[in-house]
Amino acid sequence: MNFRVERDNAPRESFGEYKYLIYRGSTLIARYWHDYRGDEHGIEFLNGKSNMWPVGRMIDFLEGGGPQPVVLSKRAEAFIEEWLA
What we know:
Largest sheet: 5 strands, antiparallel
Radius of gyration: 12 Å
Number of helices: 2
Order of helices and strands: EEEEEHEEH
Strand content: 35-45%
Strand order of the largest sheet: 1-2-3-4-5
Helix content: 10-25%
Structural class: alpha+beta
Number of strands: 7
């Protein structure tokens, strides 16, 4: 599947959560978040399903960052496909 991750540009507190929008093609399907240290994370699908600890740790879910674009890991893609089935 063709997934795209965008950083949610809403203002955040200094120790607030980092938030991302996940699209399948051009359709927004989920909102993903992690705390400022990456210790806790969760995903909320637009269909109402949610999971407070998807695919191990945050670094197992997202890849990239810095000069590289943020993308879903293969495990994250498989997780999302399973939850949307």
